[in-house]
Amino acid sequence: MPRVRFAPSPTGYLHIGSARTFIFNWLYARRNSGTMILRIDDTDVERNTQASLDSIFEGLNWLDLGWDEFYRQSERVDLARATAQTILDKGLAYRDFTPAVTDAEDKPRDAATWLFNPGARELSLEESDRRAAAGEPFVLRYRVPRDTVRGVRFNDAVYGPQSKSTADIEDFALLRSNRMPTYHLASCADDSDLRISHIIRGQDHLTNTFKHVLIFEALGVEPPQFAHLPLLIAPDGSKLSKRKHGPVVSVTTYRDGGFLPPAFMNFVCLLGWSPKNDREEMSRQELVDAFSFEGINRSNAVINFSDDDPFDPKAVWLNAEHIRHLPLDELSNQLLPFAQSAGFDVDWGYMRRVTPLIQERIRLLTEVATVADFFFVEHLAPYDPAELIPQKGDREMALAALKKSRAILSEIPFEHQALDSALRAGAAELKVKPGQMFQPVRVAVCGRKNAPPLFETLEVLGRNKTLERIDQAVGMLQ
RNA sequence: GGCGCUAUCGUCUAACGGUUAGGACAGAGCCCUCUCAAGGCUUAAAUACGGGUUCGAUUCCCGUUAGCGCUACCA
Hints:
3-stranded parallel β-sheet; elongated
Protein backbone atom coordinates (compact mmCIF):
# COMPACT_ATOMS: atom_id res chain seq x y z
CA MET A 1 0.00 0.00 0.00
CA PRO A 2 1.56 3.27 -1.04
CA ARG A 3 2.01 5.99 1.50
CA VAL A 4 2.29 9.52 0.13
CA ARG A 5 2.52 12.91 1.75
CA PHE A 6 1.88 16.55 1.04
CA ALA A 7 4.34 18.59 3.06
CA PRO A 8 3.75 22.34 2.83
CA SER A 9 5.66 24.85 4.86
CA PRO A 10 3.41 27.49 6.41
CA THR A 11 5.17 30.55 5.06
CA GLY A 12 2.48 31.96 2.77
CA TYR A 13 -1.03 31.15 1.67
CA LEU A 14 -1.78 27.90 -0.11
CA HIS A 15 -1.09 28.59 -3.72
CA ILE A 16 -2.26 26.85 -6.80
CA GLY A 17 0.96 24.95 -7.37
CA SER A 18 0.90 23.54 -3.85
CA ALA A 19 -2.74 22.65 -4.28
CA ARG A 20 -1.90 20.73 -7.42
CA THR A 21 0.85 18.86 -5.60
CA PHE A 22 -1.64 17.93 -2.92
CA ILE A 23 -4.13 16.81 -5.55
CA PHE A 24 -1.63 14.62 -7.40
CA ASN A 25 -0.61 12.96 -4.15
CA TRP A 26 -4.25 12.47 -3.26
CA LEU A 27 -5.05 11.02 -6.67
CA TYR A 28 -2.17 8.61 -6.46
CA ALA A 29 -3.21 7.51 -2.98
CA ARG A 30 -6.83 6.99 -3.97
CA ARG A 31 -5.94 5.32 -7.23
CA ASN A 32 -3.73 2.79 -5.46
CA SER A 33 -5.65 2.35 -2.21
CA GLY A 34 -2.87 4.14 -0.39
CA THR A 35 -2.58 6.49 2.55
CA MET A 36 -2.57 10.26 2.19
CA ILE A 37 -0.52 12.07 4.78
CA LEU A 38 -0.57 15.78 5.51
CA ARG A 39 2.65 16.91 7.14
CA ILE A 40 3.35 20.51 8.02
CA ASP A 41 7.02 21.23 7.42
CA ASP A 42 7.43 24.00 9.96
CA THR A 43 11.01 23.75 11.11
CA ASP A 44 11.80 27.32 10.14
CA VAL A 45 10.25 28.90 13.21
CA GLU A 46 11.14 32.42 12.15
CA ARG A 47 9.16 32.32 8.95
CA ASN A 48 6.14 30.29 10.00
CA THR A 49 2.87 32.08 10.52
CA GLN A 50 -0.45 30.97 11.89
CA ALA A 51 -2.19 32.85 9.11
CA SER A 52 -0.40 30.74 6.60
CA LEU A 53 -1.33 27.53 8.37
CA ASP A 54 -4.95 28.67 8.43
CA SER A 55 -4.76 29.42 4.73
CA ILE A 56 -3.53 25.90 4.00
CA PHE A 57 -6.42 24.33 5.90
CA GLU A 58 -8.86 26.78 4.37
CA GLY A 59 -7.78 25.85 0.87
CA LEU A 60 -7.66 22.14 1.56
CA ASN A 61 -11.06 22.18 3.22
CA TRP A 62 -12.56 23.91 0.22
CA LEU A 63 -11.09 21.26 -2.04
CA ASP A 64 -12.77 18.71 0.23
CA LEU A 65 -10.25 15.98 -0.45
CA GLY A 66 -9.04 15.06 3.02
CA TRP A 67 -6.11 13.12 4.41
CA ASP A 68 -5.62 10.01 6.50
CA GLU A 69 -2.78 11.01 8.82
CA PHE A 70 -1.53 14.34 10.08
CA TYR A 71 1.86 15.41 11.49
CA ARG A 72 3.71 18.54 12.34
CA GLN A 73 7.43 18.52 11.86
CA SER A 74 7.95 20.94 14.73
CA GLU A 75 6.64 18.24 17.05
CA ARG A 76 9.12 15.75 15.70
CA VAL A 77 12.41 17.59 16.00
CA ASP A 78 13.72 14.98 18.43
CA LEU A 79 13.44 12.42 15.67
CA ALA A 80 15.36 14.68 13.30
CA ARG A 81 18.06 15.34 15.91
CA ALA A 82 18.43 11.64 16.62
CA THR A 83 18.73 11.06 12.90
CA ALA A 84 21.43 13.70 12.71
CA GLN A 85 23.26 12.03 15.56
CA THR A 86 23.14 8.73 13.74
CA ILE A 87 24.71 10.28 10.68
CA LEU A 88 27.35 12.03 12.79
CA ASP A 89 28.16 8.80 14.62
CA LYS A 90 28.70 7.09 11.31
CA GLY A 91 31.24 9.77 10.42
CA LEU A 92 29.09 10.92 7.52
CA ALA A 93 28.61 14.38 8.94
CA TYR A 94 30.81 16.93 10.67
CA ARG A 95 30.45 20.02 12.78
CA ASP A 96 31.25 23.29 11.08
CA PHE A 97 32.04 26.08 13.55
CA THR A 98 32.36 28.72 10.83
CA PRO A 99 30.08 31.66 11.69
CA ALA A 100 26.95 31.86 9.57
CA VAL A 101 26.98 34.07 6.52
CA THR A 102 24.15 36.42 7.30
CA ASP A 103 23.54 37.60 3.77
CA ALA A 104 23.36 34.81 1.23
CA GLU A 105 24.43 37.22 -1.47
CA ASP A 106 27.81 37.53 0.20
CA LYS A 107 28.67 34.03 -0.84
CA PRO A 108 30.90 34.12 -3.90
CA ARG A 109 28.90 32.91 -6.87
CA ASP A 110 30.92 33.75 -9.89
CA ALA A 111 34.11 32.27 -8.46
CA ALA A 112 34.61 28.57 -7.85
CA THR A 113 31.50 26.71 -6.74
CA TRP A 114 31.17 26.64 -3.00
CA LEU A 115 31.32 23.11 -1.60
CA PHE A 116 32.43 23.49 2.02
CA ASN A 117 34.06 25.90 4.41
CA PRO A 118 37.83 25.49 4.52
CA GLY A 119 39.15 23.70 7.57
CA ALA A 120 35.83 22.51 8.87
CA ARG A 121 35.93 19.01 7.38
CA GLU A 122 39.41 18.34 8.69
CA LEU A 123 38.69 19.16 12.30
CA SER A 124 39.52 16.16 14.48
CA LEU A 125 36.67 14.38 16.21
CA GLU A 126 38.25 15.11 19.59
CA GLU A 127 38.44 18.84 18.98
CA SER A 128 35.00 18.88 17.43
CA ASP A 129 33.52 17.12 20.47
CA ARG A 130 35.42 19.39 22.84
CA ARG A 131 34.24 22.62 21.20
CA ALA A 132 30.69 21.33 20.97
CA ALA A 133 30.76 20.34 24.64
CA ALA A 134 32.04 23.82 25.47
CA GLY A 135 28.86 25.18 23.94
CA GLU A 136 30.31 26.65 20.80
CA PRO A 137 27.60 26.91 18.11
CA PHE A 138 28.03 24.88 14.97
CA VAL A 139 26.18 23.77 11.90
CA LEU A 140 26.16 20.06 11.19
CA ARG A 141 27.03 19.31 7.59
CA TYR A 142 26.80 16.21 5.50
CA ARG A 143 30.25 14.95 4.60
CA VAL A 144 29.87 14.54 0.86
CA PRO A 145 32.61 12.19 -0.42
CA ARG A 146 35.51 14.18 -1.89
CA ASP A 147 38.34 11.71 -2.30
CA THR A 148 36.51 9.57 -4.80
CA VAL A 149 34.15 11.21 -7.21
CA ARG A 150 31.07 9.17 -7.85
CA GLY A 151 27.59 9.66 -9.21
CA VAL A 152 24.55 9.86 -6.98
CA ARG A 153 21.64 8.23 -8.76
CA PHE A 154 17.94 7.73 -8.53
CA ASN A 155 15.20 6.93 -10.95
CA ASP A 156 12.46 9.49 -11.09
CA ALA A 157 9.01 8.21 -12.03
CA VAL A 158 8.51 11.26 -14.23
CA TYR A 159 11.97 12.45 -15.26
CA GLY A 160 13.62 9.08 -15.60
CA PRO A 161 17.14 8.16 -14.53
CA GLN A 162 18.93 11.01 -12.76
CA SER A 163 22.54 11.28 -11.80
CA LYS A 164 24.82 13.93 -10.39
CA SER A 165 28.44 13.84 -9.43
CA THR A 166 29.35 14.22 -5.77
CA ALA A 167 31.85 16.80 -6.99
CA ASP A 168 28.88 19.05 -7.73
CA ILE A 169 27.14 18.61 -4.40
CA GLU A 170 28.09 20.91 -1.55
CA ASP A 171 28.35 19.86 2.08
CA PHE A 172 24.77 20.85 2.82
CA ALA A 173 23.54 21.54 6.33
CA LEU A 174 21.58 19.03 8.39
CA LEU A 175 21.30 20.92 11.66
CA ARG A 176 21.40 24.66 12.10
CA SER A 177 23.39 26.32 14.81
CA ASN A 178 20.15 26.81 16.73
CA ARG A 179 19.85 22.99 16.83
CA MET A 180 16.84 23.01 14.52
CA PRO A 181 16.96 20.56 11.64
CA THR A 182 17.08 21.87 8.10
CA TYR A 183 14.44 20.99 5.56
CA HIS A 184 16.62 18.28 4.01
CA LEU A 185 17.21 16.47 7.27
CA ALA A 186 13.74 16.83 8.74
CA SER A 187 12.12 15.84 5.49
CA CYS A 188 14.17 12.69 5.05
CA ALA A 189 13.96 11.72 8.71
CA ASP A 190 10.18 11.98 8.57
CA ASP A 191 9.83 10.35 5.20
CA SER A 192 11.83 7.44 6.52
CA ASP A 193 10.04 7.24 9.86
CA LEU A 194 6.59 7.58 8.30
CA ARG A 195 7.52 4.94 5.74
CA ILE A 196 6.65 7.19 2.82
CA SER A 197 6.71 5.06 -0.30
CA HIS A 198 6.36 7.76 -2.96
CA ILE A 199 7.46 11.36 -2.82
CA ILE A 200 5.40 13.40 -5.26
CA ARG A 201 6.48 17.02 -5.23
CA GLY A 202 7.46 19.98 -7.35
CA GLN A 203 10.34 19.81 -9.80
CA ASP A 204 12.09 22.56 -7.87
CA HIS A 205 13.16 19.70 -5.60
CA LEU A 206 14.64 17.60 -8.35
CA THR A 207 18.22 18.64 -7.67
CA ASN A 208 17.66 18.55 -3.92
CA THR A 209 16.83 14.91 -4.31
CA PHE A 210 20.49 14.01 -4.73
CA LYS A 211 21.09 15.29 -1.22
CA HIS A 212 18.14 13.35 0.03
CA VAL A 213 19.41 10.18 -1.58
CA LEU A 214 22.68 10.76 0.27
CA ILE A 215 20.80 11.10 3.55
CA PHE A 216 18.80 7.95 2.98
CA GLU A 217 22.04 6.17 2.16
CA ALA A 218 23.57 7.37 5.42
CA LEU A 219 20.52 6.07 7.24
CA GLY A 220 20.87 2.76 5.52
CA VAL A 221 17.34 2.84 4.17
CA GLU A 222 16.01 2.43 0.68
CA PRO A 223 14.90 5.83 -0.68
CA PRO A 224 11.24 6.20 -1.58
CA GLN A 225 10.17 6.33 -5.21
CA PHE A 226 10.44 9.92 -6.41
CA ALA A 227 8.02 11.56 -8.83
CA HIS A 228 8.66 15.21 -9.60
CA LEU A 229 6.01 17.44 -11.08
CA PRO A 230 6.64 20.14 -13.68
CA LEU A 231 6.21 23.61 -12.27
CA LEU A 232 3.31 25.97 -12.83
CA ILE A 233 4.58 29.25 -14.20
CA ALA A 234 3.22 32.72 -15.04
CA PRO A 235 2.43 33.79 -18.63
CA ASP A 236 5.77 35.59 -18.84
CA GLY A 237 7.56 32.36 -17.94
CA SER A 238 8.48 33.42 -14.46
CA LYS A 239 7.87 31.37 -11.37
CA LEU A 240 4.52 31.92 -9.73
CA SER A 241 5.14 34.09 -6.76
CA LYS A 242 2.83 35.50 -4.18
CA ARG A 243 4.77 38.68 -4.16
CA LYS A 244 4.84 39.30 -7.89
CA HIS A 245 1.52 37.85 -8.94
CA GLY A 246 -0.53 38.46 -5.83
CA PRO A 247 -3.82 36.77 -5.11
CA VAL A 248 -4.16 35.24 -8.58
CA VAL A 249 -2.05 32.35 -7.33
CA SER A 250 -4.06 31.76 -4.18
CA VAL A 251 -6.52 28.90 -3.99
CA THR A 252 -8.98 31.03 -2.05
CA THR A 253 -9.14 33.43 -4.99
CA TYR A 254 -10.62 30.62 -7.04
CA ARG A 255 -13.01 29.74 -4.26
CA ASP A 256 -14.17 33.33 -3.85
CA GLY A 257 -14.22 33.81 -7.62
CA GLY A 258 -16.93 31.21 -7.97
CA PHE A 259 -15.17 28.00 -8.90
CA LEU A 260 -16.57 24.59 -8.08
CA PRO A 261 -13.92 22.56 -6.25
CA PRO A 262 -14.11 19.64 -8.73
CA ALA A 263 -13.74 22.07 -11.63
CA PHE A 264 -10.70 23.66 -10.06
CA MET A 265 -9.26 20.22 -9.48
CA ASN A 266 -10.02 19.24 -13.07
CA PHE A 267 -8.23 22.31 -14.34
CA VAL A 268 -5.05 21.96 -12.31
CA CYS A 269 -4.83 18.28 -13.17
CA LEU A 270 -4.74 19.16 -16.84
CA LEU A 271 -1.73 21.36 -16.13
CA GLY A 272 1.25 19.05 -16.41
CA TRP A 273 -0.74 15.87 -16.73
CA SER A 274 -2.83 14.32 -19.44
CA PRO A 275 -5.18 11.33 -19.56
CA LYS A 276 -3.94 10.99 -23.17
CA ASN A 277 -7.35 10.32 -24.59
CA ASP A 278 -8.45 13.89 -25.32
CA ARG A 279 -10.68 13.98 -22.27
CA GLU A 280 -11.10 17.47 -20.86
CA GLU A 281 -14.01 17.58 -18.44
CA MET A 282 -13.47 14.92 -15.80
CA SER A 283 -15.09 14.20 -12.48
CA ARG A 284 -13.15 13.50 -9.34
CA GLN A 285 -13.66 9.77 -9.75
CA GLU A 286 -12.66 9.85 -13.40
CA LEU A 287 -9.46 11.62 -12.45
CA VAL A 288 -8.72 9.01 -9.82
CA ASP A 289 -9.32 6.21 -12.30
CA ALA A 290 -7.18 7.80 -15.00
CA PHE A 291 -4.27 9.00 -12.90
CA SER A 292 -0.81 7.60 -13.40
CA PHE A 293 2.78 8.88 -13.42
CA GLU A 294 3.04 8.05 -17.12
CA GLY A 295 0.65 10.87 -17.90
CA ILE A 296 2.77 13.50 -16.17
CA ASN A 297 4.70 15.90 -18.37
CA ARG A 298 8.22 17.13 -17.94
CA SER A 299 7.93 20.71 -19.10
CA ASN A 300 6.55 23.58 -17.06
CA ALA A 301 2.98 24.66 -17.68
CA VAL A 302 1.85 28.25 -18.05
CA ILE A 303 -1.22 29.24 -16.14
CA ASN A 304 -2.74 31.85 -18.34
CA PHE A 305 -3.98 34.74 -16.25
CA SER A 306 -3.82 38.41 -17.15
CA ASP A 307 -4.22 41.79 -15.53
CA ASP A 308 -7.88 41.99 -16.57
CA ASP A 309 -8.71 38.41 -15.72
CA PRO A 310 -7.16 36.48 -12.86
CA PHE A 311 -8.43 33.17 -14.22
CA ASP A 312 -7.18 31.06 -17.09
CA PRO A 313 -9.90 31.00 -19.79
CA LYS A 314 -9.74 27.25 -19.88
CA ALA A 315 -10.33 27.08 -16.15
CA VAL A 316 -13.38 29.26 -16.56
CA TRP A 317 -14.66 27.11 -19.42
CA LEU A 318 -14.16 23.94 -17.42
CA ASN A 319 -15.99 25.49 -14.50
CA ALA A 320 -18.88 26.31 -16.83
CA GLU A 321 -18.91 22.70 -17.99
CA HIS A 322 -19.06 21.45 -14.44
CA ILE A 323 -21.82 23.93 -13.61
CA ARG A 324 -23.89 22.73 -16.57
CA HIS A 325 -23.61 19.14 -15.50
CA LEU A 326 -24.40 19.72 -11.86
CA PRO A 327 -27.82 18.54 -10.60
CA LEU A 328 -30.08 21.56 -10.10
CA ASP A 329 -30.51 21.07 -6.38
CA GLU A 330 -26.78 20.95 -5.91
CA LEU A 331 -26.21 23.97 -8.11
CA SER A 332 -28.80 25.90 -6.13
CA ASN A 333 -26.91 25.07 -2.96
CA GLN A 334 -23.73 26.41 -4.49
CA LEU A 335 -25.37 29.52 -5.89
CA LEU A 336 -27.33 30.60 -2.84
CA PRO A 337 -24.44 31.90 -0.73
CA PHE A 338 -23.07 33.85 -3.68
CA ALA A 339 -26.44 35.51 -4.30
CA GLN A 340 -26.84 36.30 -0.63
CA SER A 341 -23.37 37.69 -0.19
CA ALA A 342 -24.02 39.93 -3.20
CA GLY A 343 -26.71 41.49 -1.07
CA PHE A 344 -29.84 39.85 -2.48
CA ASP A 345 -32.62 38.68 -0.23
CA VAL A 346 -33.26 35.22 -1.60
CA ASP A 347 -34.19 31.87 -0.11
CA TRP A 348 -33.37 28.39 -1.32
CA GLY A 349 -36.78 27.71 -2.84
CA TYR A 350 -36.65 30.77 -5.05
CA MET A 351 -33.01 30.16 -5.94
CA ARG A 352 -33.97 26.69 -7.03
CA ARG A 353 -36.55 28.13 -9.45
CA VAL A 354 -34.05 30.59 -10.91
CA THR A 355 -31.24 28.05 -11.19
CA PRO A 356 -32.38 26.24 -14.36
CA LEU A 357 -32.64 29.57 -16.14
CA ILE A 358 -29.05 30.53 -15.49
CA GLN A 359 -27.34 27.17 -15.42
CA GLU A 360 -26.00 27.38 -18.92
CA ARG A 361 -25.51 31.12 -18.79
CA ILE A 362 -22.95 31.42 -16.02
CA ARG A 363 -19.33 30.34 -16.02
CA LEU A 364 -18.57 31.29 -12.45
CA LEU A 365 -20.86 31.05 -9.45
CA THR A 366 -20.31 34.74 -8.78
CA GLU A 367 -22.09 35.56 -12.01
CA VAL A 368 -25.40 34.74 -10.37
CA ALA A 369 -25.29 38.31 -9.11
CA THR A 370 -25.03 39.88 -12.55
CA VAL A 371 -27.04 37.39 -14.59
CA ALA A 372 -30.01 36.84 -12.27
CA ASP A 373 -30.16 40.12 -10.37
CA PHE A 374 -33.56 41.14 -11.77
CA PHE A 375 -35.12 38.04 -10.22
CA PHE A 376 -34.06 39.12 -6.78
CA VAL A 377 -34.61 42.86 -6.62
CA GLU A 378 -37.91 44.51 -5.77
CA HIS A 379 -37.37 47.36 -8.22
CA LEU A 380 -35.25 47.34 -11.34
CA ALA A 381 -32.23 49.57 -11.53
CA PRO A 382 -32.68 52.47 -14.00
CA TYR A 383 -32.09 51.52 -17.63
CA ASP A 384 -32.12 53.32 -20.96
CA PRO A 385 -35.71 53.42 -22.34
CA ALA A 386 -34.26 53.16 -25.83
CA GLU A 387 -33.51 49.53 -25.01
CA LEU A 388 -37.26 48.90 -25.06
CA ILE A 389 -37.46 49.66 -28.77
CA PRO A 390 -37.29 46.46 -30.82
CA GLN A 391 -35.16 45.73 -33.87
CA LYS A 392 -36.43 47.58 -36.95
CA GLY A 393 -39.09 49.16 -34.78
CA ASP A 394 -39.79 52.47 -33.12
CA ARG A 395 -41.24 53.90 -29.94
CA GLU A 396 -44.77 53.36 -31.16
CA MET A 397 -44.16 49.71 -31.84
CA ALA A 398 -42.60 49.28 -28.40
CA LEU A 399 -45.58 50.92 -26.74
CA ALA A 400 -48.03 48.85 -28.72
CA ALA A 401 -46.18 45.65 -27.90
CA LEU A 402 -46.02 46.48 -24.21
CA LYS A 403 -49.66 47.45 -23.94
CA LYS A 404 -50.77 44.40 -25.87
CA SER A 405 -48.58 42.19 -23.73
CA ARG A 406 -49.89 43.74 -20.59
CA ALA A 407 -53.45 43.04 -21.61
CA ILE A 408 -52.58 39.44 -22.44
CA LEU A 409 -50.51 38.88 -19.34
CA SER A 410 -53.13 40.12 -17.00
CA GLU A 411 -55.43 37.34 -18.06
CA ILE A 412 -53.66 34.17 -19.06
CA PRO A 413 -52.06 31.68 -16.69
CA PHE A 414 -48.31 32.17 -16.14
CA GLU A 415 -47.32 28.90 -17.65
CA HIS A 416 -44.88 28.32 -20.46
CA GLN A 417 -47.21 26.96 -23.13
CA ALA A 418 -49.92 29.52 -22.52
CA LEU A 419 -47.49 32.42 -22.46
CA ASP A 420 -45.86 31.25 -25.65
CA SER A 421 -49.00 30.92 -27.74
CA ALA A 422 -50.77 33.98 -26.35
CA LEU A 423 -47.83 36.30 -26.86
CA ARG A 424 -47.22 34.97 -30.34
CA ALA A 425 -50.85 35.44 -31.20
CA GLY A 426 -50.58 38.99 -29.88
CA ALA A 427 -47.63 39.63 -32.15
CA ALA A 428 -49.59 38.37 -35.11
CA GLU A 429 -52.46 40.70 -34.30
CA LEU A 430 -50.09 43.65 -34.13
CA LYS A 431 -48.46 42.44 -37.36
CA VAL A 432 -45.01 42.42 -35.82
CA LYS A 433 -42.48 39.63 -35.60
CA PRO A 434 -42.47 37.60 -32.41
CA GLY A 435 -39.04 38.95 -31.59
CA GLN A 436 -40.31 42.49 -31.86
CA MET A 437 -43.04 41.61 -29.44
CA PHE A 438 -40.78 39.83 -26.97
CA GLN A 439 -37.96 42.29 -26.72
CA PRO A 440 -39.82 45.21 -25.17
CA VAL A 441 -41.30 42.83 -22.62
CA ARG A 442 -37.93 41.29 -21.89
CA VAL A 443 -36.30 44.63 -21.34
CA ALA A 444 -39.22 45.80 -19.27
CA VAL A 445 -38.99 42.88 -16.86
CA CYS A 446 -35.22 42.28 -16.93
CA GLY A 447 -33.94 45.78 -17.44
CA ARG A 448 -31.71 44.69 -20.27
CA LYS A 449 -31.71 42.98 -23.64
CA ASN A 450 -29.65 39.94 -22.76
CA ALA A 451 -31.50 37.62 -20.47
CA PRO A 452 -32.79 34.06 -20.13
CA PRO A 453 -35.69 32.90 -22.30
CA LEU A 454 -38.73 35.07 -21.80
CA PHE A 455 -41.49 32.63 -20.89
CA GLU A 456 -39.52 30.81 -18.24
CA THR A 457 -38.45 34.15 -16.86
CA LEU A 458 -42.03 35.37 -16.60
CA GLU A 459 -43.07 32.15 -14.92
CA VAL A 460 -40.53 32.63 -12.18
CA LEU A 461 -41.10 36.36 -11.84
CA GLY A 462 -44.87 35.99 -11.52
CA ARG A 463 -47.74 38.12 -12.70
CA ASN A 464 -47.52 40.94 -10.18
CA LYS A 465 -43.91 41.90 -10.78
CA THR A 466 -44.29 41.41 -14.50
CA LEU A 467 -47.26 43.75 -14.85
CA GLU A 468 -45.72 46.26 -12.52
CA ARG A 469 -42.54 46.41 -14.55
CA ILE A 470 -44.41 46.63 -17.84
CA ASP A 471 -46.39 49.56 -16.49
CA GLN A 472 -43.19 51.19 -15.48
CA ALA A 473 -41.75 50.71 -18.95
CA VAL A 474 -44.84 52.14 -20.58
CA GLY A 475 -44.49 55.15 -18.34
CA MET A 476 -40.90 55.60 -19.39
CA LEU A 477 -41.83 55.58 -23.05
CA GLN A 478 -44.67 58.05 -22.74
C1' G B 1 29.57 31.22 -12.96
C1' G B 2 28.71 25.65 -11.78
C1' C B 3 25.27 21.68 -11.90
C1' G B 4 20.47 19.76 -13.21
C1' C B 5 15.88 19.83 -16.01
C1' U B 6 12.95 21.29 -20.22
C1' A B 7 11.66 22.75 -25.52
C1' U B 8 4.76 20.57 -30.61
C1' C B 9 -0.48 25.95 -32.57
C1' G B 10 -1.16 32.31 -28.34
C1' U B 11 -2.26 28.64 -23.97
C1' C B 12 -3.13 23.34 -22.05
C1' U B 13 -1.81 19.03 -24.62
C1' A B 14 -1.88 14.03 -28.17
C1' A B 15 1.27 11.50 -31.50
C1' C B 16 6.28 6.33 -27.14
C1' G B 17 10.56 6.06 -35.99
C1' G B 18 6.14 5.98 -40.98
C1' U B 19 -0.26 10.55 -39.33
C1' U B 20 -2.93 15.33 -44.45
C1' A B 21 1.11 16.46 -36.85
C1' G B 22 -4.86 15.08 -33.52
C1' G B 23 -7.96 17.29 -29.43
C1' A B 24 -9.30 21.40 -26.06
C1' C B 25 -9.47 26.72 -24.59
C1' A B 26 -9.14 31.46 -26.59
C1' G B 27 -9.96 33.96 -31.91
C1' A B 28 -12.77 34.31 -36.78
C1' G B 29 -17.11 32.79 -39.73
C1' C B 30 -21.73 30.12 -40.57
C1' C B 31 -26.16 27.44 -38.72
C1' C B 32 -29.92 27.07 -34.88
C1' U B 33 -32.85 30.80 -32.32
C1' C B 34 -37.75 35.41 -28.82
C1' U B 35 -32.40 38.27 -26.94
C1' C B 36 -28.24 36.07 -24.35
C1' A B 37 -26.33 31.54 -23.65
C1' A B 38 -25.87 26.46 -24.81
C1' G B 39 -25.34 23.32 -29.09
C1' G B 40 -23.74 22.02 -34.31
C1' C B 41 -20.49 22.97 -38.50
C1' U B 42 -16.28 25.51 -40.73
C1' U B 43 -11.68 28.22 -40.40
C1' A B 44 -6.80 30.18 -39.01
C1' A B 45 -2.75 28.54 -35.87
C1' A B 46 2.85 24.50 -33.95
C1' U B 47 7.26 20.33 -34.08
C1' A B 48 13.20 26.63 -31.37
C1' C B 49 17.89 26.28 -34.54
C1' G B 50 22.05 23.28 -36.62
C1' G B 51 24.23 18.71 -37.24
C1' G B 52 24.10 13.47 -37.14
C1' U B 53 21.79 7.96 -36.82
C1' U B 54 18.06 5.78 -40.14
C1' C B 55 15.00 3.76 -46.13
C1' G B 56 12.33 7.33 -43.04
C1' A B 57 12.67 11.67 -37.77
C1' U B 58 8.11 15.75 -33.61
C1' U B 59 10.02 11.08 -31.78
C1' C B 60 16.88 8.57 -30.90
C1' C B 61 22.13 11.04 -30.29
C1' C B 62 25.31 15.59 -30.23
C1' G B 63 25.78 20.82 -30.31
C1' U B 64 23.60 25.87 -30.16
C1' U B 65 19.94 28.98 -28.26
C1' A B 66 16.20 30.00 -24.82
C1' G B 67 13.45 29.16 -20.34
C1' C B 68 13.16 27.17 -15.54
C1' G B 69 15.28 25.02 -11.07
C1' C B 70 19.18 24.21 -7.41
C1' U B 71 23.67 26.33 -5.92
C1' A B 72 21.20 29.42 2.34
C1' C B 73 22.41 27.58 9.17
C1' C B 74 14.44 28.91 3.46
C1' A B 75 11.49 25.12 2.22
